[in-house]
Amino acid sequence: MIKKKIGIVAKDLNHSLSPLIHNYWSKKNKNKFIYRKYEVQEKNIDKFFSNYTRDKQFVGFNITIPYKENFIGFCDKVTTRAKRIGSVNLIYKKNKTIYGDNTDVIGFSKTFSSLKIKNTKSVLLIGAGGAARAILYFLNKRSIENIDIFATSIRRKENLKKKFKFNRFLIRSTHFRKKYDLIINASSAGMTKKNKINRNILNLVKKAKGVIDIVYNPIETDLLKKAKKHDINFSGGLKMLVEQAKPSYEIWSGNKIEIDRKIYQMLINKI
Question: Structure pTM?
Answer without folding.
Answer: 0.92
